[in-house]
Amino acid sequence: MTERARIMKAQENEVPSEIRDLVVAVSKLSHEHRAVLEPALNRVVDSTRRRRRILSLVQDALGQLRLDMKYLAFDLEATRRERDDFRSKLEGHA
Q1: pLDDT tens-digit series, residues 53-78
Q2: What pTM, to 2 d.p., does this model score?
Q3: Under a CB-based contact definition with an 8 Å cutoff, are residues 26 and 37 in contact?
Q4: Checking CA distances to 89, which of 3, 17, 34, 71 falls within 20 to 30 Å?
């Protein structure tokens, strides 16, 4: 796969197909109509890409948080077991 094809594929994943269809439709308009619509369309495309990136970051952060919570729960349980073992040893010697 060429570098250009890879970039195009990445851009396709960033923007929904409906917006890509709209970009193609606007590109086929006359220059005067295209000049009116393109700035707004570019803002929509940019905001869509930004939202996708933010969503991806949030999903990654949530995944990391879930993993951290599992480690913390495991550590808490191990600490409780150690505490209970220590208490039983102290009570056995008392």
Answers
A1: 999 999 999 999 999 999 999 999 99
A2: 0.65
A3: yes
A4: 71
If you compute the radius of gyration of the chain from its CA atoms, what whole number of angstroms results? 27
The backbone region for 15, taken as left when phi is positive above 0, alpha when psi lies in -120 to 50, beta otherwise, is beta
Do residues 53 and 87 make contact, with C-beta atoms less than 8 angstroms apart? no
Amino acid identity of 81? R
Using alpha carbons only, give the angle 79, 81, 83 rounded to the nearest 5 degrees. 70
Residue 21 to residues 12, 31, 43, 88, 90, Cα–Cα distance (Å): 11, 18, 16, 70, 73
Say how far apart CA 13 and CA 56 lie, in whole Å.
12
pLDDT > 90 in the chain, percent: 80
Give the C-alpha distances (Å, rounded to integers) separating 32 from 28, 39, 45: 11, 12, 20
Residue 7 identity (one-letter amino acid):
I
The token duo for 81 is 């077991």
Q: Compute the Cα dihedral for 18, 8, 28, 51 and give only its sign.
A: positive
